[in-house]
Amino acid sequence: MSLHEVNPSIKAFTVVVSILILSVFFDPITPLVTILWSVTVTFLFGRVSFKKWLLLFTPFLFIAVIYVWSTMLFPRLQVGDHIIWQWGILTVTAEGFQRGLSLGLRVLSFATLSIMFTLTTKPTDFLLSLMQQCKLPPKLAYGIMAGYRFLPLIREEFLTLKNAHRVRGVAGARTIPEKIQQLKRYVIPLLAGAIRKAERTALAMESKGFTGAKNRIFYREITVSRIDWIFLFLMIGAVILSAFISWKLGYLQFYNGEL
Amino acid sequence: MLAKWKLREVIVLSVLAVVFAVVYLLFLQLGTVLFAMFGLIGYDLIFGIWFIVSIIAAYIIRKPGAAFLSETIAAMVEVMIGNAVGPRLIISGMIQGLGAEAVFAATKWKNYSTWVLMAAGMGSSVFSFAWGFYVSGFAALSPGYVTAMFFVRLASGALLAGLLGKYLSEGLAKTGALNSFPLGKEHKRNVTV
Amino acid sequence: MSLFKQLEAEGLGFSYEERDIFTNLTFSIQKNQSLLLLGPSGSGKSTLAFCLNKLYPEAVDGILNGSLLFEGKNLDDFNQGELNQKIGIVFQDPESQFCMLTVEEEVAFGLENFNVPRIEMEAKIEAALAMVGLHDEKKSTIHTLSGGQKQKLALACVLALEPEVIILDEPTANLDPQSSTELAETIARLKKERPFTLIVIEHKLDDWVEIIDRCLVLDSNGMILFDGSPRQCFGEFAPFLQKEGIWLPKVVNAGIAAKNAGFYKGERLPLRHHELLAGLENSVAFSIKNNITVSLGEPILEVNGLYARGHLKNINLRIHKGEMTAVVGANGSGKTTLSKCVSGLLPLTQGQIHFLGMPLSKWKEKELFKHLGYVFQNPEHQFITDCVHEEIGFGLEDQAAIPAILEKMGLEKEAAAHPFSLSQGQKRRLSVATMLVHEQDLLILDEPTFGQDANTAHEIMEVLNEKEGSVFMITHDMELVDQYADTVHVLDKGELIFSGTPESLWGNLEIIQQARLKLPFRKRLQNDLVRREIHVAT
Lengths: 259, 193, 538
Hints:
The structure holds three protein chains of three kinds. Helices cover 77% and strands 0% of the residues of chain B. Chain B is mostly helical. Chain B starts with 6 loop residues before the first helix and ends with a helix. Chain C is α/β, with parallel strands linked by helices. Helices cover 36% and strands 22% of the residues of chain C. Chain C contains 20 helices and 20 strands. In chain C, helix 3 (103-113) packs parallel to helix 5 (147-160). Chains in contact: A-B, A-C, B-C. Chains A and B meet through helix 1, helix 3, helix 4, helix 5 and helix 6 of A and helix 1, helix 4, helix 5 and helix 7 of B.
C-alpha cells in the first residue's frame, strides 16, 4: 500500500475528520499519540523525503511554542488551579501549563496529518477526484486548475517586478503608507495581467468545446477501492485510540463548553 | 448558483485567488514576526488580510457566491501549492467566505458601498473567530485575552480586508483590466461623465 | 477543389459596448480553402474569427446581426460547444490557452469535452502530438515548453478533434522568427496530409504566402475592402493596403520600394523572391546598405571572464561610448541572464564587470541606476504610477522636460491616461521614455520590439539611434540588427561565440546556423542576386 495511491478525496476527508475529533480534547496525550501514529504512517507508506517533511514541519514547531506560552501567560483561571509561578499580573498554573502544552501539541498533530496529505497528493489528482467522487462541478474544478496554472507565471512576474522596482528606485519601503503603496505596486500589475490572461484562457477553453457539462468521460479515472476505506477507518480509529490511551493514563480532558 | 456564472468569471475568480495566495505567503512572514512579538493576538492584527480576496472578488464581479467561492478557491489553491495547513484550510476558507457572503446577502447583493465592504470584512472576522475558537481551543485562554483578540480581529477585518480591498480594486479598475466587469463598467461611467 | 460553401456570412455585423466592430459583411468560404484575413489593427479580424465558431457573442455580451451558416445550418441551431469540434482555433498568446498541467492532459481535455470513449483517447492523443512533432513531450509539464512548442501543442489540441476548419489568430505574434517559420511549415505539411479549411490572421506574412489561396481584407471601419486572390491583392492593391496600415510581405514591400526608386520593371508587384529578382533592373543599387563606419569611443562597460547561474561561461565583452550593441541567440542561450548580470540585477559566480571604470559591485544601487537604465520585455512591469505624465516625471529633477518627451514619443494626448490602459505600442514607447528621460550612459533593453508592429518597432529604434548614450539590446529580429546595430554579440548555450559587425556576422554561415539565426531579408536578396549573376555568367 502506498499513501500516494489512496483516493485524494478520502484522504482529505480523513484528515479533516481527524482534526475535528482532535479539537474536542484538551489534554496533551491524545495529540501526542496521534502525532507518533501519523508520522509513522507517513514515512512507512508515503516514501516521503525527510528533508521535505522537516521543511514543512519546522514552522509549526515555532507556532506551537507560541501557543504554549500564550496559553501559559494568559490562561483561563479556574478555582483550585495550582499556581507554580507568579510575577506581577502574570500567573502560571500547573493546569494552564498542561492546557498550553495540549494546544501546542494539537497544532503539531494537525500539522503531521496535513503534511501527510500534502506530500502524497498531486494537485491534478485532487481536483480530478473532487470532480469524480465529490461531484464538484467541472466548471469550478477546471476554473481552479486554469488559475493554478498561472502560479509559476505569477512567481516569475513577481521577481521581474522586484527587479523593475530596483531599476526605478522604489524597491525599499519602511513606513506603513509606503508598505501599502508597495503592495499596490506589486498587486495591481500582477492582477491586471492575470485577469486579461484569465479571460483569454476562458475563451480558449470554450473554443475546445468546454461547456461545464456534468457528464464527462475522464481520460484519467480516479477510483475508490477497499484500501481507501481501510485507510479511513485505520486513521480515525487511531485518533480515537489515542484518546482512549489518554483516558487510561488519566489525562483525558474534554472541551466543557466554556466561553 | 454556479449555473449563472460564466466560465470567464470563474477563471478570473480563481486567478484572483492565486495572486492573493502569493500575497498571503508574503504576509505570513510579517504575521509570524507579530506573532512572536505579541503572542496569539499578533496574528489577529493582520488577520483581515486573509479575507481580502472575498471582498475584492465580490466588489469586482458582484454576483451571489463571489465572496464565498473566491475565499474557498484561494484556500484550495493554497492547499494545492503545498501549504502544510492542508485540507483544514479549505474548511477555514469556506467559513471565512461565508462570513463575508452573509453580509452581502443581507443587502441582497445590491449594495457595495464602503460600509458594506467593511461590514463584510467584519463578517469574515466573526465567522473565522468562531471556527478558531473551536479548532484552536481558545477556551483554554483567559476570557479577557480572548475578547481582546476578537476585537482586534474585527478591526483588522474591517480595515485590511474591507478598506484595503476597496482601495486595491479601484486601483485595478483604473488600469482598464476590469472593463468587462461591473466594477470596471461603473468606473468607466464615472470617468466619461 | 470542391466549390461547396462551408461558411456563409450575410450582412454580418457585431457590436460590443455600444460600438460597431464590423458591419454588413457578406462573404463565403469554400471547403478546404486557405484564407488570409487581413486588416489594420482594430478592424475586428479576431472578433470575426470568434464569431465564426460561436465563441462570440456569448463570451462578451455583444450583439451579432445578420446571418451566419456553417454547412447550410444557422449557427444559432448548433448546441453550445457543438461547433467547436468542427471549427478549431489557435490563439495568439502561448501562455494563456491551456488549463491543464501536462501536455497529454491538455490534449485529453478537448477529447473529454466531446465525450470521446476512454479507450480511443490514448491513440488520438498520440496521433495529434505526432502530427506536430511533440511526441517526446507527451508527459512534459506545459510550463517547461518553449513558446513555439506551446503553439504546436495548441495546434495538436485542435487537430485531435479532427476539425473541418482551423482558424489561426496571429499564432506567431509572440514567437521568435525561427519558431514562426517552423509553425507555418507544420501547417503547410498538415494541409497536404489531410485537407481542411484554413483561416489565417497574421501580421508577419512572408511564411504564409505559399500556403494561402485567397485574401479577405477588412478596412479600419470593419468593412470588406478586398476579396480575391493573393496575387491580385498584393500584386495590384499593395500600395493601397500599405496606406491603410495593413502589413505586407517583405518581398512586396521591397517591390514597392524598388518601383518607387524606378528600378523595378515588373508589371505587377512581386509576391515571391524570384519574381522580385526577375523584375529588378539595377540589383546592386538596391541591396547595398549605406554603411557608415562608426569609430567606437572609449569602453564604458567591460565584462571579463564572467560566469553566472551555472549557465553563462567565460563571457568577455566591451560596450563602448555611443555604441549600439545587439545580443542575439536562440531561446535559452543566456541573453536575458547576461543582460541582468551587466545591469547588476543578478550576482556573478565568477569574473568582473567594470562600469565607468568602477567594479559593478562597488556601485550604490541608487547611483548605478542613474547611469544605467533597463527596459523590461513587458512594459507593464515598469509602471509604478497611475498616469502617463507622472510615470515620466517620476524621479525627474526637471519636471518641465516632460511635455517635450511626451511629444517625442507621440504620447501627448495620453498624458492623463493610466499607463495600463494604453495600446501595446504606446505602452512600449512609454516604458522606453521613462528610461530615456534620465539620459543614462547605458540603456539595456530586453527585446524592445517583441510583439510590436513594424511602425512602433522602427519608431523605437529611431529614438534609440538618436540617443546620446550606448545601447545594449537583446533581440530576435535580424532586420533590426542589420539596420541599426554597430556591434552584434552571438550567444549559444551560455557561450559567446561571435562578436563583430552585423556585416561580418552575415558572412559567417557557420555561426548563423549554430545559433539558429536567420539572415536578414536584404542579405538573402543580395545572396540570391549574386547567385543569379553567377548563373547568367555561366
